[in-house]
Amino acid sequence: MTRSLRLIRDGVTAFVFLAFAALIAAKLNDADKIEHAGTFHAADGDSLTSGGERLRLEGIDAPELNQSCKREGKAWACGRVAREALQGMVLASGTLCQGSRRDRYDRLLVVCRSGTGGDINAAMVRLGMAISYGGYGKEEAEARAAKAGLWAGTFERPRDVRDHKRESSGFGSALGLLGRIVGWE
Description:
Number of strands: 10
Helix content: 40-55%
Number of helices: 6
Shape: elongated
CATH architecture of the domain at 34-155: Beta Barrel
Order of helices and strands: HEEEEEEEHEEHEHHH
Oligomer: single chain
Largest sheet: 6 strands, mixed
Structural class: alpha+beta
Radius of gyration: 22 Å
């Protein structure tokens, strides 16, 4: 076989391999959306349960349930207030949550919409009851400018609260560092 024919053969083989890999990637990205409608219970400001399914609002991070924040020098239960805000939003009839991926805790990552079509994830950030976590940067900027919710005072980022809790519970800073490197949270 001549050198030019081998180059053509190798080029065709490489092309077929890349096309096959692209088809596999497209199929993996084409996961069916899972939908939940009906009654929801807010576990905290960014987590819901529906029946036996645990749901995590994608793109936001709300204060931990027992987290306190400060406003005008006084502590307030920002974690509980965030949960109450989310519960109020999902009580509206026609709430629909959709997602196709799961987090490391096997919670379905969802975007929820109210019966009127409003994005509940965005509303939580816009109200200052959650911060942007990979999405909703525009809404966070609006909340900051309006000094809404968390932005009316001082608060520790929810991720930092979780990291501190892990470190003080004996998991150690090495595990927290590994988690940040791997992107677990």
